[in-house]
Amino acid sequence: xxxxxxxxxxxxxxxxxxxxxxxxxxxxxxxxxxxxxxxxxxxxxxxxxxxxxxxxxxxxxxxxxxxxxxxxxxxxxxxxxxxxxxxxxxxxxxxxxxxxxxxxxxxxxxxxxxxxxxxxxxx
Length: 123
Description:
The longest helix is centred in the middle third of the chain and has 4 residues. The N and C termini lie far apart (40 Å). The chain is mainly beta. The model has no long low-confidence stretch (mean pLDDT 94). The chain is globular and about 40 Å long.
């Protein structure tokens, strides 16, 4: 049974930072890429960042140009992280961790999903 468990969300003020974690179990860790998605109320679930088994990563264009988000993975702990700095109210969303055999940016390509962690950024 594959399980992905997100943690690290919470209520923060604009300008604060958070580091989200996604711990995997039952997953052939090195055989999968991990992605972070987010879904705000009334919006579609969107790709935020992803990292493949060798550490190569991509950040969504809208976030990469801002330089606020960084993705990394710990191959000892089977955990992927999303470091989020300078958070804004528009970052408020449920953040999901997902796993796929390759690094995709489309949500329908991912095989496994966590339950999500809520990030709320107040003004």
